Amino acid sequence: MFSLRLTVAIVIAPLSFLVAGEASGVEVSLIGLFPGKAVVTIDGGAPRVLPVGRKTAEGVVLVSTERDSATFIIDEQKKTLMLGPHHAGPSPVPASQSVTLTADPRGHFMVEGQINGGPVRFLVDTGATSIALSSSEAHRLGIDYRSGQPGLMGTANGTATAYRVRLDTVRVGDIVINNVEGAVLEGNQMPMALLGMSFLNRMEMRREGQTMVLTKRF
Question: Where does CATH 2.30.30 sit in the chain?
Fold first, then answer.
């Protein structure tokens, strides 16, 4: 049994490129920025949203966010992570593997893409643990989701049955990611698929005004 976190009400705000800072052996990677929040990975762990003032078990505290930087306290030392050439992990892929999204009047980012070669309309959701879609969408795409691992998923309407699956390919614009974790929600409670962190954590995310640029990192 597994559980996933899912949100459909999102707030998108300026996002920065991935940068990394180290202090006392703790590595903090900055993936994105929101008003009063930052999306980070700590010591190579899963991405998490860190609000200002909250201290993690690793001793990391987000002090403040700016347009292209964030200030942290890491083991009692103040560190500001800026946009820069240093990147953690594998070298970035060519910048041509990117896509530019435009926000709708509500500030949401939606984009046409593909799952396993089939057309899908995505809503970008950094609050979703993985790519998520309804069982009707899975049937349309030929995904045998019932062979996946069953579990529970928290949604805006409560807890629902979901199945963890592996998606062969996910395409958004020129970006193609293979072997991406997904979750299929039983029933027809989702009007569109959610482009969650199992895809987005492979991206650099940059927001300027009403546009967001996703660039494949690896």
Answer: 19-82
Using DSSP, state whether 136 is helix, strand or coil: helix
pLDDT tens digits for range 140-197? 999 999 999 999 887 767 788 999 999 999 999 999 999 999 999 998 668 899 999 9
Give the CB-side neighbour count of residue 139, counting CA atoms within 13 A: 7
Class of domain 91-216: mainly beta
The two tokens of residue 157 are 């309407």
The reported pTM is 0.70
Q: Cβ of 9: how many Cβ atoms within 10 Å?
A: 8
Classify domain 19-82 at the CATH topology level. Answer: SH3 type barrels. (2.30.30)
Cβ atoms of 37 and 154 closer than 8 Å: no
